[in-house]
Amino acid sequence: MPVESFEPQGSADLRAANAAFYAAFEARAPETMAALWARTTQVTCTHPGWPTLHGFDAVRASWAAILGNDQPLQLIVTDEQVHVHGEVGWVTCVENLLGEAGPAGSVAALNLFVRGRDGRWLMVAHHGSPVASRV
Amino acid sequence: MPVESFEPQGSADLRAANAAFYAAFEARAPETMAALWARTTQVTCTHPGWPTLHGFDAVRASWAAILGNDQPLQLIVTDEQVHVHGEVGWVTCVENLLGEAGPAGSVAALNLFVRGRDGRWLMVAHHGSPVASRV
User: Fold this and answer.
1) Which of A53, A57, A85 to mutate to test the interface with B (most CBs of B within 10 A)?
2) Which of A87, A109, B45, B124 stands the most exposed, by the fewest C-beta atoms within 10 Å?
3) Distance CA A87, CA A112 (A)
4) What is the DSSP secondary structure assignment for residue B27, as one 8-state letter?
5) Residues of B numbered 107-126 whose beta carbons fall under 8 angstroms of chain A's beta carbons: which are they?
6) CA dist A60 to A94, A128, B16, Å?
């Protein structure tokens, strides 16, 4: 398969969708977060250390629980790489978490989106996993 | 987005591609494993606890290291859910690892494939993360 077959045509919109996901996360905004996902039973979400959740309702409930907390949260997203193939796009990135006492670990993420009929990218899968500290 | 927009049309071939991935893993067959991936700089692989690796060469080298070990490995794959949207397919599943002494933990996986011009599904991303034991 040639590299150009999934060159990031349309990647600016996809980067914006990925940024909106992290903005909703950092703002602890569950309704904004829910609106970024496809409302189907087919979506999946794997939070770090969790089993995979299936379906919009389970995914929305998990974000409501995670975001319904008033501890300050700062996320710095790095190493973003964007891929588009047809009406599907995916982004790999690193979520660098900052707590009150400084760096609080990093999470490797794979975020998968499908372009809806209105051209908007909707999230269909998120998979985050803790990156072990280097020794 | 209606649910049927990513119903698993063509899912039998995708299930077979996912099964081939785990067969290569369990057989500790690095060449077979390498042949299942798209040969581009765009592929990504996140082994449990690892940072994401980018590009076919890095991914192939990581599998060579992981598979180049003669300890018995048994994997039981459960909870497989298959999604196809256009020329992109993805599978979520659980990798249940069995060691010599019994169950050795489970990994939540998201495997992403792109259909090549010959109709064959090629892996473009694998993301595995350890599932914390339930207390």
Assistant:
1) A85
2) A87
3) 11
4) T
5) 108, 110, 112, 114, 116-117, 122, 124-125
6) 22, 16, 31
Give me the residues of chain B with pLDDT under 70, please: 1-9, 134-135
**Does pTM surpass 0.80?**
yes
Confirm if B114 and B87 have CB atoms less than 8 A apart.
yes
Q: Cβ neighbours of residue B17 under 8 Å, at least 6 residues apart? A: B36, B89, B113, B120, B121, B122, B123
Residue with tokens 């497989």: B80
- Calculate the alpha carbon distances from B93 to A56, A79, A80, A108, B25 in Å: 18, 26, 25, 18, 15
Name the amino acid, one letter, at A107: V
User: A19 Cβ partners below 8 Å, 6+ apart?
Assistant: A77
Angle at CA of residue A68, ends A66 and A72, nearest 5°: 85
Give the tens place of pLDDT for each residue, B69-83: 877 789 999 999 999
Is the ipTM beyond the 0.85 threshold?
yes
> Are A82 and A8 within 8 A, CB to CB?
yes
Laid out side by side, the sheet with B121-130 consists of B53-54, B44-46, B121-130, B102-115, B88-99, B74-85
* DSSP bridge partners of A118: none
CA distance A89 to A108: 17
User: What is the maximum span of chain A, computed from C-alpha positions, in angstroms?
Assistant: 47
Which DSSP helix (H) or strand (E) runs through B110?
strand B102-115
